[in-house]
Amino acid sequence: MRRPVQTEDIPDAAALPSRRRFSLAGWLGGWLRWLALRALLAGVVLVLLFALFNPPTTLTIIQNARDYPIAERRWRDLGEISPVMLRSVVAAEDANFCRHWGFDMEEIRRVVAAGRGGGASTLSQQVVKNVYLWQGRSWTRKAFEAVLTPMIEAVWTKRRILEVYLNVAEFGPGVFGIDAAARHHFGTTPDRLDYVQAARLAAILPAPKSRSTHSASRRSRAIADGAATIEKDGRADCFE
Predict the structure, then answer these.
(1) How far apart are CA 50 and CA 152, in angstroms?
(2) Which residues contact 95 (CB under 8 A, 6 or more apart)?
(3) Which of 38, 93, 131, 160 is most deeply packed, by most CB within 10 A?
(4) CB 151 within 8 A of CB 133
């Protein structure tokens, strides 16, 4: 004779195997991990790609094309650019370029101690922003930048980072890259830039749409001195 089913014989829902219960938190966590992994793989592919091939354009250039005619661009290898231009850009934007792994912790601590909101961005970070991301400040962009910057430092050489930077940086409204900059501002080629011209070009980088190269400034003179200093103290060794 079959025994009647007792209440205690029915398993509690809480005792069912976890695989049979739907968990929104678990599903969301799994989806986010899947997305993060795909984003990481995409980042690795893009970093490897532009280690070998020159980026044809950037989002910043495309966005600027809506407001300004874009000057003709020609890619210049580092050997085709005046050494004093290389030193001037490093002196102006990232004097410790050869001594950090993508983030200048010494400069970051100095900025934090001074209570400033910015100013510690390295050339490596700027390359990531200019080539892979977008302009403007947001935590989302900063998060992507924090992930991609060590990647390019690990895969690219310092010379490659500096070369890409100089070929995509904005030197005026619609003027992108050192070749267009040398022609637009001084009617010459990048390999013929002297220390005065190089310092003036480097001086406009923080605000290329509002600064001019027509005359010397306190900043351009400081950059010229800085370029000479990093040549003497070895902080230019990684790209020369």
Answers:
(1) 9
(2) 226, 230, 235
(3) 131
(4) no
- The model carries a pTM of 0.83
The one-letter code for the residue type at 5 is V
Ranges in the chain, pLDDT < 70: 1-22, 24-25, 27-29, 31-37, 39-40, 115-119
pLDDT tens digit sequence for 23-48: 766 766 676 665 666 766 777 888 99
Q: What is the 3-state secondary structure (H, E, C) of the chain?
A: CCCCCCHHHCCCHHHCCHHHCCCHHHHHHHHHHHHHHHHHHHHHHHHHHHHHCCCCCCHHHHHHCCCCCCCCCCCCCHHHCCHHHHHHHHHHHCCCHHHCCCCCHHHHHHHHHHCCCCCCCCHHHHHHHHHHCCCCCCHHHHHHHHHHHHHHHHHCCHHHHHHHHHHHCEEECCEECHHHHHHHHHCCCHHHCCHHHHHHHHHCCCCCCCCCCCCCCHHHHHHHHHHHHHHHHCCCCCCC
Q: What is the pLDDT of residues 170-196, one digit of tens each?
A: 999 999 999 999 999 999 999 999 999
